[in-house]
Sequence to fold (132 residues):
Amino acid sequence: MTLKIQHTEIILYVNDQQKSTLFYEKLFRKSADLNVPGMTEFIINNHCKLGLMPNDGIAKIITPALPHPKLGNGIPRCELYFIVENLQEEYENVKKLNTTIISEIEPRNWGDTAFYFADLDGHVIAFAEKMK
Fold:
């Protein structure tokens, strides 16, 4: 039987939950849907949430079996890839965040036009539009 996923929640481990929450609120131009000590959540759409969990919080669960997540701060550990409606508008918004633009808006050989940037913890984020 095939696995049937009903909802997706992506959780990023972050160094500073408050600073990351502010970054993502500015990025998404909306307040967090949940913001309590140990977890921030943004509802992306009906089937996806993005969570922010402090490194020290998840370390209580995963160490010592895995290294403490703070050892990976600033090292790209994942990519969030969002298809958006207005790529240029999102690019202008990201530029206001004074974050690292990794790759400018370009047509990509897989059929999207996209740009890449990093959040405060070095997670890679891409915003893209399907080529017309």
User: Anything to note?
Assistant: The first strand starts at residue 8 and ends at 14. DSSP finds three helices and eight strands in the chain. The chain has a mean pLDDT of 95.
